[in-house]
């Protein structure tokens, strides 16, 4: 919301729970890209890595990916886009109804 971020697993849960949209949350095997995208310094990356290695997987930054295949209908594409826009605008309001497990993310 605004310049605040919500956890990528939370976004994936909302897309699934509210719209039946399955996505993939995590770093998508693109750790260096994510580090650059989120402006994470090498020192901060090391701290995040050490925290995750201690069992707190929920600290790991990431993003969510949904795919549009080549035969998707315009109607379904619009549905997916609207679902993402809804979660981006209103998802934070549903935070009180979810709990982050810091060990699993």
TrEMBL record:
It comes from Guillardia theta. This is Aminotransferase class V domain-containing protein. It comes from the Eukaryota.
